[in-house]
Amino acid sequence: MCENHHILLKRFRSTAVRDLLYLQGELVHLEAEFQAAAKKDREITGQTQHHDLDWWYLSRRQNDGLPNKQWELSLQIRSILEQYCKFFRSA
To answer: What is the pTM for the complete model shown?
Structure first.
């Protein structure tokens, strides 16, 4: 029997790095989708031209009966970004 009480833990570093790369990939994809939605909205005349620059109008766009793809994407990006940043806080 062992007299020294050492706990052996596997570090899963390669798995963590792979997960971090997946998060980066998701962020890149969502960011491209957001930019495409923002470009589409900028081509529309009226208030929707500036929704990608003003979170308040963007978040309330659905109340105007308009599609709100940018806001939905920004919330998805926020969620993934929180997970991404958590990796660095724990490292």
So the answer is: 0.73
| Cα-to-chain-centroid distance, residue 50 | 21
Sequential DSSP letters for 56-75: HHHHTGGGGT---HHHHHHH
pLDDT tens column, 22-49: 999 999 999 999 999 888 877 775 656 6
Residues present in the chain in total = 91
**What tokens appear for 77 in the block?**
């990006």
Domain ranges in the chain? Answer: 13-90
Question: What are the residues whose beta carbons fall under 8 Å from the beta carbon of 9, sequence distance 6 or more?
Answer: none
